Amino acid sequence: MNAHGASGAARPLRGMAFMVIAYGFITINDASMKWTLTSLPVPQAIAIRGLFALLLLIALSALLGRLGNLRWRNPLAQVACALTFTISMFCLITAFSYLPIALAIVIISSGPIYVTVLAPVLLGETVGWWRRGAVLLGFAGTIIVMQPGTDGFTWPMLLPLIAAVFNAIREMIIRRVIGAESSISMVLTSMAFVTLIAAAASPFVWQPPAATDIALLALAAAALSVGLVLVFEAIRSADVSIVSPFQYAGILWASLAGYLIWSDVPTFATTLGATLIITGG
Question: Do 74 and 236 contact (CB within 8 A), yes or no?
């Protein structure tokens, strides 16, 4: 079955718009999570946010009469998608504890580079020589941002890089099964998986959450849920190699959030590297 659905036609503009809007919502989630990490440990923050997100997604599915869409059709793909989502989520949220939000997002935004590398192998998509050159440019940008071998490099920079690789793998999985699995089913499964893992770890690090923390985590849950559904719909609307580069809108959203909330200003290396990563994507 064609992954674009019954219409049989790609809708690239719709996919691009969905991806840009999605990363606006995801940035709200990221900023809320980073704020709560000053008082709550990573597993607890992920678990509480996940509980809110699960309740919201189930309620939304019931309200829209789509509970039947939660049924799995490809269990292996669902589990693989949930596993890659969990690894990526833990790596990124942990990175927020150590890095400015814009720096973490710039590094994880190298993900489309890995999508381009993997797409010919896993999806059979054609990647021309100019795209291969662009990938090298993106890799160069990542190196400039991370500055390995210098005093500018710190080990937490590896976390969003690992998250970027697993995000790329996850996009490949989504693209392979998007015609059979519903967006809400895959989002809910991934959210349930990461929430269970985080909940299992939370008793060992539990801290009493303040009302502000609960409110921020509820906001994060709503924003992340909307963002993830829009990402799935973006991938459903057009070729992954077309919509993936619009994840770079997340860099602009994160830079704005970092400046407005924490007065963070990206360094020259971060700005230069981000420019190369965007160009390479």
Answer: no
